[in-house]
Write a structure and sequence with these properties.
single chain, alpha+beta, Archaeosine Trna-guanine Transglycosylase, Chain: A, domain 4, Methane Monooxygenase Hydroxylase, Chain G, domain 1, 2 domains, 5-stranded mixed barrel, 6 helices
Amino acid sequence: MASIPETVQALPVLPLRDVVVYPYMVIPLFVGREKSIRALDAVMAADKRIVLVAQHSPDIDDPGADDLYRVGTVAQVLQLLKLPDGTTKVLVEGERRVAIDAIEDVDGVLSARTRPAPSIVSGDPRELDATARTLLALFEQYVKTNRKLPPELLTTLAGIDDPDRLADTVAAHLGVRLADRQKLLETLDTGARLELLIGLVDGEIDVQQMEKRIRGRVKSQMER
């Protein structure tokens, strides 16, 4: 991952519908709104960095400052492709969290004034490692019963020895509500984020088991 400045005065903003991007996350995005396409054009003419921020509601077509969360992710544009239908496909890589102090419209492009929001590592390192191992073991159980996630993901996670990066990588693959995903982005303390993830993964496993029981019950009733 390329190095970036310690402080960012202002960067173009790309509002996201029902998507939260974390550091280290590589994801393709399809962009169709005119203001967002202008923002991408602006970053491609500069240093290819943009602030990705989730909208409170995906139903808003032209979001303003009040419609966006106040913690986002600075990302680098890796690839950009203009599609025949007028939309744009962009591949981005999340780099770091930022707190957003202000958002304004500058010549038809949303621009954010940001400050760094680095992760906080506190407490006993051994406890942090133990919490990370607990999350990894629980997430392994989640992946094995979730057909949407490739088994190879577990190999990738097993090779991550940084608890902060592990937390963000797990978060990137967890299918929970937008509010929960945003809360994970806003939780700067690594230990607290790991514990929050343990609770969310545990809850998702409970839901999977409940769905399995319901399917089994319905199947039994139909076979009578």
